[in-house]
Structure formats: structure tokens, C-alpha cells
Amino acid sequence: MVTFLPSRPGRLADVPAFTRAVGGAESNVACTLAAAGHRVRWVGRVGADGFGDHLLAAVAAYGVDTGAVRRDPHRPTGVYFRTDADRATDAHEVVYYRTGSAASAMSPDTVPYETVADGRILHLTGITAALSADCRDLLYELTAPRPHRPLVSFDVNHRPGLWRDGPVVPDTPADVLLDLANRADLVFVGADEAKALWGTHGARAVANLLDRPETLVVKLGRGGATVVDRHPASHAHIEDADGVAYLERPPRVDVVSAVGAGDAFAAGFLSATLRGLPMPVRLRHGHLTAAAALTAPGDLARPPRRAHADRLAALDGPAWATLRLGPGWTGEDQEVRTP
Q1: In this structure, are strands 121-125 and 225-229 parallel, antiparallel, or unpaired?
Q2: pLDDT at position 167, please?
Q3: I want to staple 104 with a disulfide (CB 3.0 to 4.6 A). Which of 15, 36, 131, 267 is the partner?
Q4: How many CB atoms are closer than 10 A to CB 236?
Q5: How far is C-alpha 312 from the geometric centre of its chain's CA atoms?
Q6: pLDDT, tens digit, for every residue of 176-195?
């Protein structure tokens, strides 16, 4: 969908102008992965309108294959407006115009499984489930157990505003998102959204609830992120009957815009997963890609060059703990350290 970014801080009622940009969790992840050097296909539906033209051109410019995106002649491209405040605060406002959009018409009939079957990873989010009953059916179809399916990655991405304005469903968002997460192989969820959805407290409680995914990433905000690996390949720091857990704290970041970090984190972790890197290193790549988004305006930012990210991810513990990243750090040797 198209997102409209505010020209200045403040309430939506007080912002005089907005700048058009690409929005949407899945396309954000796709663009970031493509910019990181991976082959990526984005599958979806947009309207046969000017906004749809813009989205396809902008996403393709990152190197994403958009050949499987369909144009809907009867429904518009979805749009939304937001403030620049952190999504986790009460100051953040977002207004969606997605009811009846082209994306809301996605279904098992309009998005055949064959369009995603040949990928190594299939990345989905809970946002799609909130758009319509057909979209929810599509996610159940794509997460169904079947031989040789791609590794299914699912970002819970609970957006209460979409569920409030979306279709009436027999199950609550908590039920739907829990079910979908437990059908995936790799799950991303924030500890705060897990608490709001399911009443859990802490990463271990989330892991007890989401006991089916092979890999579970629980994001802890400034506290970092924990990954639970239920099929560890080697000995690691914390091991019990539930698998191996790793905690990695993020570097210090001088934040320009707090929006888009979650999608960037997922892209960084998925990039490292595709490369077969160790779990703690995957977390660090997630943090670094999130830092690229946090230090740039808008929802999207190009990730650091692979060699640059690899060098930072390989820092020893004390060096990682003193790393501080600010605007422009993705250029060579522009990171700074705290005293």
C-alpha cells in the first residue's frame, strides 16, 4: 500500500502536508532483502490506479520481482496516513484506508500456492489476516502442512486498528494470530504485543505458548531480542528441554524515525538465515538492519553493505556493547562508539 509520511511532528489534525512513500510490512521486508543482495519476489494485489503504478515501480526499483503482483480493476490500492511518533506510544496515530482495497481481495483463488512454492523462505504477517475473511483463508492455505513447503516465516504484527475496522470474524485476533503463528516454522513477535494479545509476561512465557515453531524470535525493545532454537545444531549458551535460547542486545542508536524497525529486523534476521549464519549472529544482523531503518526517515532504508554488517556482527562482546550508530552509519566506517 501507499503510506503518507507527515511533513512535521504532531497530531494528524495539525500536519499540513504528507509525502508519499511505499508502505506495508511484507513489501518493506522484500525491498530490504533485495537491497541486501537476495533474490526476492513480492506477491500481492494493487489497484489499476496511479498508486498501484507507483508501488510497482518503487518496489521493483529495489530489485524485487513484481511479476506475480496482480492489478485489480475494481478495487483501489490501499493507503494509510501516520504520525512520526513511535508506534509503541500513545502519541502515535495511524489511519488506514484498506477496507475494500485490492489487497483485501487476496484469497486462495487469486493467489495460488504455486506462486510462492519455489522460494526458500515464505514470509507472511498477521496484517494480511486482518484485511478480510478471504485473506485469512489465504494465510491458512499458505501455512498448511505440505511436503517440501518453503520455510514459513510469520511476523505476528498485530495492528489493533485494522482488526477493529476489518471484517467480523468468529475468532478473536488473539485466536487467529496464535493459530497462524503455531503453523509457521519461524515466528517474530514483540513481547509487548504478545502481552497485549495473549497475556504473556516475558520471552519464556511466549515460548511456552508458541511451542510449535522451530525458531521463535521474541523482540524485547531496548532490551534486545531472544531467539529460541528448538533444533539446535550445536551447543549454545542456555539449553533446556525447550531448546536453546540466545539473547542479543542492540547497539545504541541515534533514532531519526522509529517506524519500520520491526520489518527491517525481520529482513536482517532472514538474510542471515538464508546465509546459514549462527543464531546469535542472525540476531545481530537483525539489530543492524533495524538500526539502518531507525537512523533514516520513512519506513524503508537500505541496509548496510554485507561486508560492513558482517564486520560489526563479528565484534566481541565489549566492542558490541559500546557500539553506537547514528545517521549515515551505513556508509563505510561511520559508526561511533560510546565512551
Answers
A1: unpaired
A2: 56
A3: 131
A4: 16
A5: 22
A6: 999 999 999 999 999 999 99
The whole-number pLDDT of residue 174 equals: 94
Q: How far is CA 277 from CA 106, 185, 233, 246, 272, in A?
A: 34, 17, 11, 14, 5
pLDDT bracket for residue 120 (50, 70, 90) = very high
Among the ranges given (56-70, 154-168, 225-239), the one the predictor scored with the smallest mean pLDDT: 225-239
Q: Pull the grid cell for residue 212.
A: 510449535
Q: Which residues contact 271 (CB under 8 A, 6 or more apart)?
A: 33, 36, 38, 285, 289, 303
Report d(CA 108, CA 182) in Å as an integer. Answer: 20
Q: Please state, as a whole number, how many other Cβ atoms lie within 10 Å of the Cβ of residue 165.
A: 15
- The position carrying cell 509457521 is 184
Instruction: Take residue 291 and report the three cell numbers written for it.
Output: 538500526
Amino acid at 81: F
Amino acid letter, residue 224 = G
Q: Which residues contact 88 (CB under 8 A, 6 or more apart)?
A: 192, 221, 258
